[in-house]
Specification:
single chain, mainly alpha, about 60% helix, elongated
Length: about 170
């Protein structure tokens, strides 16, 4: 297959072989070294070092923008794919990404990108924790509204403590 540029080659071969948007971001971040360069033997060999590095940097910035523009619901689904590819549980995968989030950023990522990525990873982690917490509730319990803890149903054998009124009496 003939490509018109190193960027096209990266996008249409290298990154297509990696499953999951977050995993792709992690892959490109792993090609990025501490001096700000990128290293990929095959791309460099075919297109030259300069063109390869420039294309990988462009692909990395583009992919970060794509992640940050993706709705959280879609990223939550992507976590399932990406974590499976990484051989980890979704929660552990997101925690690993959160711990290395500066590493996930390309050089000169843009104003607010680091904070935005941290917010996205925090939201994903919170949603995964809530999902796990809800999965541990008995099926007879009603699903909580956002911001509420799970409560047993009214007819449950588990006693429910009534909230106290301001005057100290139970309702």
């Amino acid at each position: 297959m003939t490509f018109s540029s190193a960027l096209q080659d990266i996008q249409e071969t290298t990154l297509k072989a990696v499953r999951g948007l977050l995993r792709k971001l992690e892959y490109l971040a792993d090609l990025h070294d501490e001096q700000g360069g990128y290293s990929h033997w095959g791309i460099s060999r075919v297109y030259g070092e300069f063109s390869a590095r420039r294309a990988m940097a462009q692909a990395h910035r583009s992919l970060l923008s794509r992640v940050l523009a993706t709705p959280i619901k879609n990223l939550l689904e992507d976590v399932e794919k990406s974590s499976e590819t990484a051989g980890m549980a979704p929660q552990a995968y997101v925690e690993r990404l959160s711990g290395t989030s500066p590493h996930l950023l390309p050089a000169d990522p843009g104003v607010g990108s680091a904070r935005h990525l941290n917010s996205v990873l925090h939201a994903l982690s919170s949603l995964l924790k809530a999902r796990k917490q809800n999965a541990n509730c008995p099926a007879s319990w009603p699903r909580p509204q956002p911001g509420q803890s799970p409560q047993p149903p009214e007819d449950s054998a588990t006693p429910v403590r009534q909230p106290e009124r301001a005057d100290g009496a139970s309702e």
